[in-house]
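Data availability (excerpt). All sequences and predicted token strings are deposited with the supplementary files. A representative entry, Flagellar biosynthesis protein FlhF, is shown inline so that the format can be inspected without opening the archive.
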Amino acid sequence: MTIRRFRAASHKDAMRKVRDALGEDAVIVSSRKTAQGAEVFAISEADLAQLQDADEVPSPASPDFSGIAQQLLSDMQDMRAMLHQQQGEKAPDDNRKRLYRQLRAGGYSDALSRQLVALLPSALNHSNKTYPEALKWLQQQIVARISHQSEMRVNDWELLQHQGVMAFVGPTGVGKTTTTAKLAANYVMQHGNDSLLLVTTDSYRIGAQQQLAIYAELLDVQMHALADGDTLDSLAEKMHGKRLVLVDTVGMSQRDQRLAQKIAALGSAEHRDSTRLVLLLNAAAQQETLDEVARIYQRIARESDLIIHDCILTKLDETARMGGVLDTVIRHKLTVQATASGQRVPEDIRVPDIEQLVADSLTAEVSSSQLAESEWEQASETLEPSQVFAHGHLIQSNMQALRQQIPHFDELVQALKLKQLPDHWANTAFPDELNMIRWAAPQPLQGWSHLTPHLGLNKRGLPLLPPVLHSAENPVLVDMALAPVQLFDYLPQPELLDIFSQHQTGWLATLNLNHKVQFQGQPFTVNGLVKKHGIPLSKHTILYRGERRRLELTIAAAETEPSQQLVQVIYGELHGGPSKNPVQRRYWLADGNCTAEQVVERTRAMLQLEEFARLTRLAWRSLGKYELDSRTQLGLAGALAAVALHVEYHAAAQFAGLRGELLSISGKRGRVQGDKLLPAILHVIHAYDSLVVAGREVEAQG
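Structure token line:
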């Protein structure tokens, strides 16, 4: 591929050079203003056609340009549409322009609007009939970029399960005191009033402390005021024994010089690890103001060794355009924990419905958005429409995020280039930071001849690299010294489980519903035992294959044979679909010392890792043209599957944006699942290498 660079005193002269050198059908990759005038990168249509027809196996020497070729073809369509307009002809429908105007009318920033519409698949662009589909695609892209606490019922609300200090921060008038009261009331309804403490730091506003004191009296909850200049450590005695401490902070402008001092006062030596700052954002404020608030509050929190990851959107009933606050959430990688509208306590606060908020943000009247129209036209004059430019930026940012967030990802990239596993990947050793091991079944998936690799997990239950390969000829033996918790995709021999129980090693094993156990000397199937003697545990909401599901667990005591070791039978149901019936049912066996919290942690990990075997097989097929030896192909396939699951299930807000961008790259729609993320991750790896090679060619041409 030959991408050529043309320089001239003006954009018009540069385009004339392009036409003279490459013809009227040249495809513009990108253009920009320079100190000397203008610079245009272009490729001839013949080179592009050759690129499209090429059927080469991707390799370090011969990168996979197929994705870029499709983007270039889309750019060519856009260029021709622009030429039609310049010649006075009727231009084809341009859904990118319509979506851009819709986003700007809804309050989204120019930068995010332009990035999103540039990624619109070409099949959804040049037809008025496809606009509804394009709008739906856009909604999915925005939702996928927003990390949110999407609980299914108030009793599952993660915000109310926090143990430690939760301080609400934000500018004056954003609704901190009312929000504190609303959450306090909801907390008391769930957990009672003995374990809650209310704290106010607002000594500036007249009546501020009295307002919170009235709510505290109504709820019969203790309340204390933090004196100006004191830190939370001064309330250590009053905080002792409290499950949750809600702090209503003084409202201050993001430009107030005293803000750093007030944020620092929220740090507590004793409670630092459990202190959670929640930023309140006024949905009715301008996007530029919200952006400044989030940026400054996050910076000042970092300077005080605190972190702001969570936010609550307030005053939804007062805003006409939701795009500004959603744009800020995406830009600053915040997790939306709640939305508030109105003054009623406790009714006017709820778990967020992000899909509805996004849909509402795209219903603004577009005809009044003259600014969006002029911005779009101005952008068209200075920069040719180019998906390549947007994809290139996206690929670089995604590559950087994967390298920073996933340990040993660079080793996977290098292994793909060299077509061989790193030496330490091949020695059947589990990775560092090991907290749990998921032991794969000793038989392959149906229709496949390879054993799924074993997988190490960190404390979050997320997969680590590298996966551990094994085979019937070279098995990796189970060792309780490797990790404190062992998860089995099958039921091991009773003797091994007895050894684990005797040494208090935690474990969980998958069962079928007809497996036999003993209870008080009587034989039961696990299904029958749960029905007769099962005790329900609390309900929890988990992410499962791209959707929030309610996990309902039931537990029953049992004994193993022949040792009569105490064990626990666990039955799990996943709810949340349109039907009242559960969407999934599972049975497990766990050690007798497993607590209720550990049951939830282990069953969630098992459910979320169910995709690993299938994704490994999918990655194996994707690597089929690489001419790899069988062991290398399996190791790389397992590593790619582990990365996809890590990205899919990581709860940090940074990963919400990464998931959304990878969904854009995959060109697929709907829920963000591993089978969509995996090909996108593989594409990012190859496209990044392709961009590096293409960049070198451009420099050589210059």
